Fold this sequence. Notes:
By secondary structure, this protein is of the alpha/beta class. It has helices at residues 15-18, 64-78, 89-92, 103-118, 134-140, 147-162, 184-187, 206-230, 252-275, 282-288, 299-305, 354-368, 394-413, 461-471, and strands at 8-12, 82-86, 122-128, 169-173, 235-241, 244-247, 310-314, 318-321, 329-330, 337-338, 344-345, 351-352, 372-376, 417-420, 443-445, 457-459. Helix content is 37%, strand content 14%. The protein has a single domain (8-471), classed as Alpha-Beta Barrel (TIM Barrel), CATH 3.20.20. α8 packs across α11 (299-305). The chain is globular, with a radius of gyration of 21 Å. The strands form five sheets. The protein has an eight-stranded parallel barrel with strand order 1-2-3-4-5-7-13-14, surrounded by five helices. Strands 6-8 form a two-stranded parallel ribbon.
Amino acid sequence: MSFPKGFLWGGATAANQYEGGWNEGGKGPSTADMLTNGTHTTPRKITRTWEDGLYYPNHTASDFYHHYKEDIALMGEMGFKVFRMSIAWSRIFPKGVEEEPNEEGLRFYDEVFDELHKQGMEPLVTISHYESPFYLTEKYNGWASRELVDLYVKYCNVIFNRYKDKVKYWLTFNEINCGTMPLGGYLGLGILNEGTTDFMNQKDDPQLRFQGLHHQFIASAKAVKLGHEINPDFKIGCMIAFMTSYPYSCNPKDVLKCQKEMQMGNYYCGDVQVRGEYPYFAKQYWKENNIQIQMEEGDEALLKEGTVDFYSFSYYMTNCVSTDPDLEGIGGNLIGGVKNPYLKASDWGWQIDPDGLRYTLNELYARYQVPLMVVENGLGAFDKLEEGNKVHDSYRIDYLREHIKCMEEAIEDGVDLIGYTPWGCIDLVSASTGEMGKRYGFVYVDSDDYGNGSFNRYKKDSFTWYKKVIASNGEDLE
């Protein structure tokens, strides 16, 4: 058997896209709560106040806040060994600056973790998943200010101590490398520059973004050190949106451009969090883009001391890189590229490449030599609820089957892969567009793009299939 004994099979969600209850239990507004819905062609808007006539999908999301016992029971029925979720920072510190945490918020997660353990699952908790208290954006312009480092560490101190006997696996920031891209200014860093309303086309300031990333690196390193002091058994990882790229051709210009995109898109952040130092190519990038990173005394030592225990990442697709401006482009997860003629694509145009996952796992393990987890992977599709509340999603089964096969091959190659949590294991709203119609789950949530519906849960065909996969530890994929 290729998958090791104790392999962590499960599924993944995020509080801002799944939890709902945005103004209940003492929770304050988060950056995600200020995003309107969007569509394939209409981008989400960022508003500083809630505007009448606009719909904010993260406010209700999939309503896990009121359905958590039912949802966790469904995960238990599938046989999950681990459930990746996030804690909403603004549920613990509504503004982010309070001296004392919100006890009602803390109790909610106590109950969630207790339910998970009843079902035999380990929580895998992302501490900050594309959200922070919106007050911190208003007061400090988010992570552009170093003030957020101590506020984040205070938040970590509370949850590490509160849940030290309930949570073993932690991730400091979700897809931290989105901060290397303009979209990540607000999404990952909470930076809202003057004049920005269009989520997909933000007023960008690379200096603020990369300084904000440095602050997150420092916060992550401090959190790792603190977590290990509170409980030496904690396993604390990084999380990268891995965007695998291939040169479109053997033109050396394509190869060099692809190499540079892989460096800045994927390895810039991973090197800091795993190796404990900025990579050699960072200084040249800073110089070319007029970026001056302000470091305090002791920052470099702190990065070395606060390296992560394991590397986790999301993988959805690959793209090609070319210097030819006339080639057909594609959309995708955070970043696009050139269409690969050898691959098919999803309903959203994301190219499907299981072999790319094996390639990625080998590249990562060769570079870092630490345990790896695939904590997001899946197929966003238009699912149809048919008679008898059935969803026949053979296309999702096909997608996941082929990716699991390639993970197995990577393990046979010698990669230390310890877990797999497909994204959106129960339907949730899209981070990029706010749509519910872009569905990933094994469980269908009866809600549309505007929050209309019963919010009843219905098992898809993939539910039964994934249950069988887990029970066989990845051997029965039919």
